[in-house]
Design a protein that fits this description.
five-stranded antiparallel beta sheet; Alpha-D-Glucose-1,6-Bisphosphate, Chain A, domain 3; 15 helices; TATA-Binding Protein; 38% helix; alpha/beta
Length: 462
């Protein structure tokens, strides 16, 4: 069992020992640190925080602990209860709140939960702010409110509907054109809040919905990370139902994957590629994804005469570079769409609506659409090292070895070759180097990964 503290929040498994797992005391301590930081940062008396959760089994318990800890600090809470990560992100500025907390462990299995922390813009905290919250949590220096100064709780269960409305109001979303096509779509909501909000959006766009695992009871029927090996049921059902395609989201609805009409994976990396293709065709501009995402986004961006740039891994880094380059769309290759026209956060609803509009404008199947894009294949591996091995020295030697290639050291070491690339990243918590490669064929991607791993092992003498 595990407790992971990072600048973006605290994540862990339910139960067990204090400090080793996400126990009630750990939830209270971390909520206290966040609330204390908000009071110090904004330096005002009346602080307001939006809170929402996904449908995992531990949600109500963690939700009540966190919410009433903030009340105990004298902070007012807007309680969205069952919600999604992008819904909370949208709600924070609409409520003129000072921050937000999403209670979700995202794609992690049901024994996990987490506190994801937002600033007053509804965006993830900077590294500096996250470090300060970790320091406050470690110090346990909290001052709680006296009885007359306790915070209040205001329930608002309208935000999922409001989120759908915000998406439908986007200029590039054409619900009327979608409705004319009479699409039939299978939705796997992994028995979380996506099982409510995605069908709601689809039905308002005139789409026939076949629901699979859409009861928000937190009993995940499969590993909730939307990868091919976990999605056999929906791949089969799309074919059986003769559906146009399938939609899969993770428990907090910030990641999005499609299943093509032939029951094959569209590819998480290609969710962003397809949506960006449509957006760029209507509003030319720049794009951003992280360094471990597919080169296909660069190709599509350049096809539309835009400029592509890659950020360090992590949503906050993608958003920062998007703002710096005025990117009109961006995201991460794990199926995360960031469309600033609505907000700076990964949002599966935005991805679904834009993808449907894109498809409505075409006369081809989803499988044919996927085949029309540049073909790349990824290999994801890791090497476990001993604590005595200097990982930084290994990365330094790999950089020197390939100094004549195009290299970035913004986040680990990324080496861009003519037709493929490799990205080496070290873990911050364990002696591991992660190796991501991409090439025009799976065999080439796997071979490049093996070549790089052999070189690392030689350097490390293992």
């Amino acid at each position: 069992m595990t407790l992971i503290k990072s600048i973006s929040g605290i994540r862990g498994t339910i139960g067990g020992q204090i400090g080793d797992n996400l126990t009630p005391l750990d939830a209270v301590k971390f909520a206290s640190a966040y609330g204390t930081w908000l009071k110090n940062y904004h330096n005002k008396k009346n602080i307001k925080v939006v809170i929402g959760r996904d449908a995992r089994i531990s949600g109500p318990m963690i939700h009540n602990l966190v919410m009433h800890t903030l009340v105990g600090l004298g902070i007012d809470v807007i309680d969205l209860d069952l919600s999604t990560t992008p819904t909370v992100e949208i709600a924070v500025p609409l409520e003129n709140a000072d921050g937000g907390i999403i209670l979700t462990a995202s794609h992690n299995p049901k024994q996990w939960n987490a506190l994801k922390l937002l600033n007053e813009k509804g965006e993830f905290l900077s590294g500096k702010d996250g470090e300060e919250i970790l320091r406050l949590a470690e110090a346990e220096s909290f001052t709680y409110a006296e009885v007359d100064d306790l915070g209040t709780v205001t329930k608002n269960d309208a935000y999922m509907d409001m989120h759908v409305d915000e998406v439908l109001n986007l200029p590039l979303v054409d619900a009327e054109a979608v409705a004319k096509r009479k699409f039939k779509v299978v939705v796997d909501g992994v028995n979380s809040s996506g099982g409510i909000i995605i069908p709601k959006l689809l039905k308002q766009m005139g789409v026939e919905v076949v629901e699979l695992y859409c009861t928000p009871n937190g009993d995940f029927p499969h590993n909730p990370e939307p990868l091919k090996e976990h999605l056999g049921d929906i791949c089969k059902l799309v074919v059986e139902e003769k559906a146009d395609f399938g939609i899969v989201v993770d428990p907090d609805v910030d990641r999005l994957a499609f299943i093509s009409n032939d029951g094959e994976m569209f590819g998480e990396e290609y969710t962003l590629v397809a949506v960006a293709d449509y957006v760029l065709s209507k509003t030319p501009g720049n794009t951003v994804s992280n360094m471990s995402s597919s080169r296909a986004l660069r190709d599509i961006t350049e096809k539309h005469n835009g400029t592509y740039q890659a950020s360090a891994v992590g949503e906050v880094n993608v958003v920062e570079l998007m703002k710096a380059t005025n990117a009109i769309i961006g995201g991460e290759g794990n199926g995360g769409i960031i469309y600033p026209e609505i907000h700076y956060g990964r949002d599966a609803l935005v991805g679904v609506a834009l993808f449907l509009t894109h498809l409505a404008n075409l006369e081809i199947s989803v499988a044919d659409l996927r085949a029309s894009y540049p073909q790349y294949f990824m290999s994801k591996n890791k090497i476990e090292l001993t604590p005595a091995i200097d990982v930084d020295e290994i990365l330094k030697q790999m950089t020197e070895k390939y100094k004549n290639e195009q290299i970035s050291t913004v986040d680990g070491v990324k080496i861009d070759f003519a037709t493929n690339w490799v990205h080496l990243r070290k873990s911050n918590t364990e002696p591991i180097i992660r190796i991501y490669t991409e090439a025009p064929t799976q065999a080439e991607a796997d071979a490049l990964a093996q070549q790089i791993m052999n070189q690392i092992k030689t350097i490390a003498s293992i």
